[in-house]
Each structure stands twice: as structure tokens, then as C-alpha cells.
TrEMBL record:
Source lineage: Bacteria, Bacillati, Actinomycetota, Actinomycetes, Micrococcales
Protein name: Uncharacterized protein
Keyword Transmembrane helix: yes
Segments crossing the lipid bilayer: 20-45, 65-88, 95-119
Keywords: Membrane, Transmembrane, Transmembrane helix
InterPro entries the record matches: DUF6264 (IPR046231)
């Protein structure tokens, strides 16, 4: 009995140097952006300033502040892991830090929305 011809092994995708370099640069910039947005998250504690005359929910304000401080770092970690996996698989990865940057910026707005919910009339 004869064996069927062996299938040729699939060729590895070529390494795109420009994608690797651009992804690394964008990941570093995403790290800087996460630090900046996390720093701005601490300013959400000032949402409690009008609470002397209003009945505020300090739990919501604190939760919003912690979301705005911590969520950028979570998004950065997820972004870095996905980008590294794509780079190892030799697929385009430069777009991942761009999407991660949008999510990092959005995380501050999510925290601000939560903190603002703790202040009635805002």
C-alpha cells in the first residue's frame, strides 16, 4: 500500500519588523497614558466637595475614584498580553495598543460617571 503524498508544512508568517517596533512604542505610550489617567483618577475624590450641604454617597464616589485609578492598569495589562500573543503568532499587533489607549481613556470617564452618581444633582 502506498502512502498519500505528505502535505507541505505551512510556511511561517514573516516577521514584520515595523509592526514589532511600532507595537513596542505604542505599548510604552499606553503605559504612560495609563499612569496619567490613573493620576487624574485621584482627582475624582474632589467630587465630594459639595457634600457638606448635600447628602452624598461616599461609597459611590470612592468606588468611582478607585475604578478610575485601577482600571487603566487592568486595560494596560490586557492590551500588553494580547499584543504579545499576536506578535508571537506573527500577526499584526500595532492596532491593539491603539484600542487599549481608547479603553484606558474611557476608564476615567467610567470612574467619573460612577463618582458623579454619588453626588445628587450633578
Amino acid at each position: 500500500m502506498t502512502q498519500p503524498p505528505a502535505l507541505p508544512s505551512p510556511a511561517k508568517r514573516p516577521l514584520r519588523t515595523w509592526d514589532l517596533v511600532l507595537t513596542i512604542i505604542l505599548l510604552v505610550l499606553a503605559g504612560v497614558l495609563a499612569a496619567i489617567m490613573s493620576f487624574f483618577g485621584f482627582f475624582l475624590a474632589m467630587a465630594s466637595d459639595p457634600c457638606g450641604v448635600r447628602d452624598c454617597s461616599f461609597d459611590l464616589i470612592t468606588t468611582g475614584m478607585f475604578v478610575a485609578v485601577g482600571l487603566p492598569w487592568l486595560f494596560l495589562i490586557i492590551t500588553a498580553v494580547v499584543a504579545i500573543v499576536l506578535l508571537v503568532k506573527r500577526r499584526l499587533a500595532f492596532w491593539v495598543p491603539l484600542v487599549g489607549g481608547v479603553l484606558i481613556i474611557a476608564s476615567w470617564f467610567i470612574g467619573a460617571f460612577i463618582a458623579a452618581a454619588g453626588v445628587p444633582g450633578s
